[in-house]
């Protein structure tokens, strides 16, 4: 291994601390490292460094900034295998998924690097012969970026790349569950020709770091990805300084399967999405709504596929489903499954923990039938490998069930009727709709939700806009 994780990066320097946070391998329970527990004083140092660096970084050409980002993408790809191993060991996801995620990081970085060259302004027709109106886009300033553990690489790249491409400087605060991969990914950014202070990373107490970022007026924007509960708290904190904030929060994605769908394609896509990352995916399917005419057929197809999934330690060959992230996550899944069965649902596949290691974080891929939309398992974000199946009688009923959620991140449906496809896409109250497939997270498209799933978008030119301010310039000609 060529990485160690005993440092943060502030102003281009490796900062170590005497006090640290222990990092646990969720598959085994082993302590696999320790990362710094940074002090408030050092977070303030990072803010000053980023503020100072902003002056030059924001004045470089987009082409120059793109060159630095391209170096970062190349560094990540050159270490893809090693980084994937670190991620798999620390987060639990299968090695193949972690390897793919490092590739996705490079794609996000490259796309934003290029799109930064197309941050165009506007010329607007004036209201008098002497007036000239132009609108320019300028970087917001120093940004605080707070990321979760479930996609510990992609969530960093999806924020840092557009911020840097837009000309902002950043302070990243990764999840304490997955700080090692974040530091390793940052090591690769620091191996580029980037100026000191442009990008900083701090690990430690989330509330202290976040409070320090929010209370400092030099921080002009916070971009947060994580739970809706914490997102709501941060939104209130942002109000004090009318600080810009974007929020990528929890989801509860419904999937609707109609009788005219190709049921094999639907079953393949549902199982692939539902059990990716052990079900710990913000845009992951939460409930499967199936029409009564096809409920037996689609349930069998899903169940057959789920029974074949290989559960195990993510770094072992051929594993498709790893452990959950921690005990709270397993407890939540157990509670939701018990609540559902006590209220009349039936377990079709799985339904129990697996004794793969003494750490107790493995849960069988599970399919539950006879689920009612009012059950907690249908209302809450499960964030685990459990597929609850709900039966409906009409399209209108399915849409009503789907839209009843307070979340609005992603929804999916399967149909081969073009009229139905348009009607349902327009009526579902979600920020993203997957039709006959579940792939949503790509660099060029606006990823994000409505309702309590957040505000703002990551990806596409919309993602860059989140790190830009509009400035309107009215020039009065003097002749
Ligand atoms: P979380 O508990 O909200 O934590 C997210 C981040 O916030 C972590 O860095 C965490 O740091 C930090 N944090 C925790 N308490 C905080 C506080 N009081 N003030 C400031 N920061 C605080 O979420 P998670 O469990 O890591 O992630 C899972 C959630 O993220 C799910 O709900 C999922 O749907 C959502 N998510 C959404 C998207 C999207 O694009 N919409 C993408 C991925 C995940 P510590 O770990 O150090 O406490």
TrEMBL record:
This is Aldehyde dehydrogenase. Keywords: NAD, Oxidoreductase. It comes from Staphylococcus gallinarum. PROSITE patterns: ALDEHYDE_DEHYDR_CYS, ALDEHYDE_DEHYDR_GLU. Residues 19-473 form the Aldehyde dehydrogenase domain. Belongs to the aldehyde dehydrogenase family. GO terms for biological process: aldehyde metabolic process; gamma-aminobutyric acid catabolic process. Pfam families: Aldedh. The active site is at residues 248, 282. One of its GO terms (molecular function) is succinate-semialdehyde dehydrogenase (NAD+) activity.
């Amino acid at each position: 291994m060529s990485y160690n994780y005993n440092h943060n990066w502030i102003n281009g320097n490796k900062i170590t601390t005497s006090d640290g946070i222990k990092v646990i391998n969720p598959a085994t329970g082993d302590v696999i490292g320790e990362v710094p527990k940074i002090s408030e004083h050092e977070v303030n140092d990072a803010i000053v460094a980023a503020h100072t660096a902003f002056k030059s970084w924001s004045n470089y050409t987009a082409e120059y900034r793109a060159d630095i980002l391209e170096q970062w993408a190349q560094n990540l790809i050159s270490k893809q295998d090693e980084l994937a191993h670190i991620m798999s060991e620390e987060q639990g996801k299968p090695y193949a998924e972690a390897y793919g995620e490092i590739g996705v990081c490079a794609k996000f970085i490259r796309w934003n690097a290029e799109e930064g060259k197309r941050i165009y302004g506007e010329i607007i027709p004036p209201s008098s012969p002497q007036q000239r109106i132009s609108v320019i886009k300028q970087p917001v300033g120093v940004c605080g970026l707070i990321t979760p553990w479930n996609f510990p690489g992609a969530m960093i790249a999806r924020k840092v790349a557009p911020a840097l491409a837009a000309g902002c400087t950043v302070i990243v605060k990764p999840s304490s569950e997955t700080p090692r991969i974040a530091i390793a990914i940052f090591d690769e950014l620091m191996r580029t020709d980037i100026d000191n202070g442009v990008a900083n990373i701090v690990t430690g107490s989330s509330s202290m770091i976040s409070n320090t970022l929010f209370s400092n007026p030099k921080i002009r924007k916070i971009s947060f990805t994580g739970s809706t509960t914490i997102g709501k708290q941060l939104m209130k904190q942002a109000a004090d300084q009318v600080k810009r904030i974007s929020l990528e929060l929890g989801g509860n994605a419904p999937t609707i399967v109609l009788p005219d769908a190709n049921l094999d394609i639907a079953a393949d896509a549902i199982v692939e999405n539902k059990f990716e990352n052990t079900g710990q995916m913000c845009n992951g399917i939460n409930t499967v709504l199936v029409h009564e005419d096809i409920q037996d057929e689609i349930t069998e197809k899903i169940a057959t596929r789920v029974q074949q999934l290989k559960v195990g330690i993510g770094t072992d060959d051929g594993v498709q489903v790893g452990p959950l992230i921690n005990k709270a996550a397993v407890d939540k899944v157990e509670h939701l499954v018990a609540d559902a069965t006590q209220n009349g649902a039936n377990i079709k596949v799985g339904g129990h923990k697996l004794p793969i290691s003494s750490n107790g974080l493995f849960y069988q891929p599970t399919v539950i039938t006879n689920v009612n939309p009012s059950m907690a398992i249908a209302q809450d974000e499960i964030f685990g490998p459990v597929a609850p199946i709900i039966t409906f009688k009409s399209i209108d009923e399915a849409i009503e069930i789907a839209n009843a959620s307070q979340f609005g991140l992603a929804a999916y449906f399967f149909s081969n009727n073009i009229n139905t496809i348009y009607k349902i896409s327009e009526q579902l109250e979600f920020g993203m709709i997957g039709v006959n497939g579940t792939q949503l997270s790509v660099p060029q498209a606006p990823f994000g939700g409505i309702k309590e799933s957040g505000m703002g978008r990551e990806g596409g030119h919309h993602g860059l806009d989140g790190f830009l301010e509009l400035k309107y310039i009215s020039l009065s000609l003097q002749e």
